[in-house]
Amino acid sequence: MSSELSGALREKIENTIRGLTVDAVEAAGIGHLGAPMGLARPVFQLWDRHLRFDPADPGWPLRDRFVLSGGHASMLLYSLLHLYGFGLSLEEIRQFRKLGSATPGHPEYGETPGVEVTTGPLGQGVGNAVGMAIAARAARSRFRGGDDGPGNHLVYAVAGDGDLMEGVCYEACSLAGHLGLGNLVLLYDDNQVTIDGGTEISFTEDVPARFEAQQWHVQRIDGNDVAGLDAALEAARAESGRPSLIVARTRIGHGSGWEGLPKAHGGPLGAEEAAATKANLGIPAGETFWVAEDVRTYMAQRRAAKQAERSARDAAFASWRDRNAEAAAGWEAARARTLPDGFVARVVEGFEGKSAATRAHSGEAIQRLAAAAPQLWIGGSADLAGSNNTTIKESTFLGDGDDPFAGANIHFGVREHAMGAITNGIALDGTFLPFAGTFMVFSDYMRPSVRLAALMGIRSTFVFTHDSIFVGEDGPTHQPVEHLDALRLIPGLTVFRPADGVEAAMGWAWVAQEAAGPVAFSLSRQKVDALKREVPFVPEDVWKGGYVVRDANGRPDVVLVASGSEVALACDAAALLAEAGVAARVVSVPSLELLRAQGDAYFDELVPEDVPAVAVEAALGESLRSLVGRRGLVYGMKRFGASASWQALADEFGFVPDKLAAAIRTFLA
Ligand SMILES: Cc1ncc(C[n+]2csc(CCOP(=O)(O)OP(=O)(O)O)c2C)c(N)n1
Q1: Helix, strand, coil shares of the chain as percentages rounded to 5?
Q2: Atom number, ligand 1, closest to the C-alpha of residue 195
Q3: Which of 43, 126, 265, 417 to mutate to test the pocket of ligand 1 (most atoms within 8 A of CB)?
Q4: For residues 105 and 376, what is the distance between their CA atoms, to the nearest angstrom?
Q5: Per-residue model confidence as pLDDT tens digits over 441-473
Q6: Residues with CB under 6 A from ligand 1
Q7: pTM of this prediction?
Q8: Mind listing the pLDDT tens digit for each residue in 211-246?
Q9: What's the gap in Å between 165 CA and the centre of ligand 1?
């Protein structure tokens, strides 16, 4: 099992990684070589002697997770994936950063076998790793994994100065320490260099003291001392009740003429310096993308050894499964996203005709989901659980009781950005469907994570409540105006803005049963009247993204499209218009993305091209412009809100039936 590795062969492998990096960056004409060269030794050692994985099956659920938070060091990861035989060919490495290659500039989830997560925006990866560690602990507790069942793997992350400087990292590590995530090991590439200079220009805090204050176990090593790294990793794993930071001093650009210099952060080195560097690394003159035969032989042996380790682990797992049939079935049901028969009907039953804030409807829908498939869910809020209605009432919170990871609820604390990154990490783990709540105005505080969820196409759900000026007295700092449009602009994010309980419940049913990517809910603080649907309706109509809730007798004079709390308003205005002889159709648009996906023919049925159309949204509403056309009216907000009761604001900004009806008549005239 433990294939021998002489010092000379070790160095040759490390220099192979460095050489591949130099050549790839040279061929691309751009890229980052400093960190991969500096990290080649500790990260190769981590992979070779510590990390549990199977190159033939990158998705093996019991594998350890490896997160390269500083995604710019992608060539380090690609080199390792190539050498261990993950199916990333040398040709792909030659195509580094080129269109359509499996080696994009920064690692992208789903593009390359073995890449666990998309990284590049610094600090996010640390948050993702915290989420993965939470998911593992939660799986072990919920499915009674003991020593051999699920959730026993470790999460290793590598982060640089840039990651550690980012706020999201402070937030995530604070929560990790609070929760005592002993299954998380963070290797800090302490090379004292960023882009603009040495760390002395902007980053002089005492990092070990900071992490100790955040309740981490902290060690310092020389990153080139293999025995020291082994011992530190062993000690880190022995710390079952605290996350571990290993501060590893390395030299950026190790082995190049630029070693230790800020300019080593990125390349290319240029032909002359590249040749000199490769000669220094012992790479034969004239060779590019060089992997020596003895290196190949060793890596093939290690690949086989990793697979043997996997088989042993699988055997222990199988024996656990035999002893714990019920828990094992729960774990498998979670990972397969199994839902009970009649699931949708169970979720949506009883919402018709109920008037309440849509955040309250969402909270009730969450209870239904948790009752129908308790194994699937984990979620929480950034200190607004009571307002966001995100708590699963039948469960406890992480940290409660004898088994602190048994609960399905998370107190994220006031840490929106980390909450987003952690939620993504939980989603990436693949066991649970996570959700995270805050006020919609603070979606800005977590937007980078929401964007990454969309880029990765992972099933994170974001619960944004208090979704308009109707927040009321808290005033314009708390009243989102541009956020709904801003969220709708993120490609691949499905935004649900339900108008009532049926739409809210069907939105959540969609999350559970239909979604292939992230979802954001936009939910009202204020009570909304249940829609009185006057045309034939089945709950699945909500999944079309738009449908008629009130129609004109015959051809409409105007079509009103609205979402969320403004649908009931549009219906009231339509009733006033009817009294004045204007026939209005009202279309509810719970999800613009789902409506667009229906195609033009369906859309033209709802909003005929030759009928004037008005969009109503207590927000900028500009994203609805696409529904009403250039000549249509977008009846929305033109400015920030104000501090007053929501009723006073509704009157002030015209979101009352008579003012809306009057504006529509003016528009039609
Ligand atoms: C959020 C974010 N801001 C800025 C950048 C651009 N950037 C990429 S690497 C880097 C410096 C990182 O320094 P360090 O972590 O020490 O990496 P090293 O220089 O050791 O490679 C910066 C500013 C980024 N990728 N993400």
Answers
A1: 45, 15, 40
A2: 11
A3: 265
A4: 34
A5: 999 999 999 999 999 999 999 999 999 999 999
A6: 32, 34-35, 70, 72, 120-122, 160-163, 166, 189, 191, 193-195, 252, 265
A7: 0.98
A8: 999 999 999 999 999 999 999 999 999 999 999 999
A9: 10
